[in-house]
Specification:
Length: about 400
């Protein structure tokens, strides 16, 4: 078998439903398997998804064992020569698997790769490529120098801001959201370190790969959507967990030979940054009532003005369901909409959805601050997330009497 796709799920069954539609399309014609391991979501994720995706292997844990341990658990069942560790809040274009496998197979000395990632509004995610958080790099990030000088080779190594995002290049740190790696490399360096519950396990694995002589890559020739953190509550506990993991990585790999004063200072900076991040997140928390002008969310009492775009057959199925929805109403044109739903289908692929999403055209959704949801043919919901600081949006679609959804394109 060529490829095993491993997805750890935690309480995001509707995002995972969309993800699995896109993964199945991307694996068409490839000898591959999909393994979903559920970390005790408690929301009937497995019972909901298993009938919809009979070809997928589901493993249900009775406790939340953490991201790293769950991935390693599924890895023991995987049979592929290559492994894709994938977050459930992602969308893959149809040509991603072939492009990434080709790059892996044709690049000597490669450790792993991560493709270009954009968020649910089409904005490039800087964490698509990163440098190692060495003491200097971490200090620049923690004290804001990376943000002040985003394209500086000296100060912006954390996000490799001095390198063009439009071209593939070596990237020491791979993102665990979409991490491609060969089984041979994993066998040599070992799987994820299960001492990390969540966060920094991808940095740790990336570091071990490069220490073993491999070169990791950022792959700019394919783009995925990563909705950012739908499996985690975006609150103070999340920030504390993130910086705890970063400090754990520092202690494991960069503690030897450092003076106690410097190590203590860096640790203090990490926790200071965690506190500032928590305060900033509270300040940025959106208010409950927004203006109802074009491109902004209406107040919670008003229905969303929704425009459907994409595959005509899928739109034809979804339009009467939109007409009957309580919290949504059709917009007269896309300029008047505060919400756009991209409808995947036979004549409008996930790759098309992503291309329009990240388009630089004046009418692109992110330029008009419109919220974007995605709907896959055959799906039972439309999902999206336009803000990395808030939870995503889910429209669970109730079929009209006697109606049936169009068949999935995969």
């Amino acid at each position: 078998m060529i490829l095993s796709v491993i997805i750890v799920n935690y309480r995001v069954k509707h995002f995972l439903e969309l993800c699995l539609h896109s993964v199945q399309n991307a694996l068409r014609g490839i000898d591959a398997e999909i393994i979903v391991i559920d970390n005790d979501s408690g929301d009937d994720s497995v019972a909901f998804l298993r009938p919809l995706f009979p070809a997928v292997t589901f493993i249900a844990n009775t406790v939340n064992v953490g991201f790293a341990r769950a991935n390693n658990q599924a890895l023991q069942e995987a049979r592929g020569d290559y492994i894709l560790f994938l977050n459930p809040d992602t969308i893959l274009p149809e040509d991603l698997a072939r492009r990434c496998l080709s790059f892996l197979q044709s690049t000597p000395g490669i450790g792993g790769l991560c493709p270009r990632m954009v968020d649910g509004s089409g904005r490039f995610l800087k964490e698509s490529r990163r440098g190692f958080p060495s003491p200097w790099v971490a200090a620049c990030k923690l004290f804001g120098l990376t943000a002040l000088f985003p394209h500086s080779r000296l100060f912006a190594t954390y996000y490799l801001g001095h390198l063009p995002a439009s071209r593939s290049h070596p990237s020491p740190v791979l993102s665990g959201a979409c991490l491609w790696i060969s089984r041979a490399a994993l066998t040599r360096v070992g799987p994820f370190d299960s001492d990390y519950f969540m966060y920094a396990e991808d940095i740790d694995l990336s570091y071990r790969l490069e220490q073993a002589g491999y070169v990791n890559y950022y792959f700019a020739e394919a783009t995925i959507v990563h909705f950012k953190g739908e499996s985690t509550a975006k609150d103070i506990r999340h920030i504390r967990q993130f910086y705890k993991a970063m400090n754990q990585f520092r202690r494991k790999h960069f503690n030897r030979g450092f003076s106690r004063v410097f190590a203590a200072g860096l640790e203090m900076a990490i926790w200071l940054r965690a506190g500032l991040g928590a305060i900033g997140r509270i300040i940025r928390r959106p208010s409950s009532g927004l203006s109802s002008s074009a491109g902004q969310r209406p107040s919670s009492a008003a229905p969303h003005r929704t425009w459907l775009a994409g595959d005509s057959a899928t739109i034809g199925h979804l339009r009467p369901l939109l007409d009957a929805a309580e919290k949504r109403k059709p917009a007269p044109d896309p300029q008047e909409a505060d919400e756009i739903i991209f409808c995947e289908g036979e004549h409008f692929s996930f790759k098309d959805c992503i291309a329009v999403l990240e388009s630089g055209a004046p009418g692109a959704p992110y330029r008009r601050h419109q919220h974007v949801l995605f709907y896959a043919a055959g799906s039972q919901s439309a999902v999206g997330s336009s803000s990395r600081d808030g939870k995503g949006e889910i429209w669970v679609i109730t079929p009209l009497h006697g109606s049936a959804p169009p068949a999935a394109s995969g």
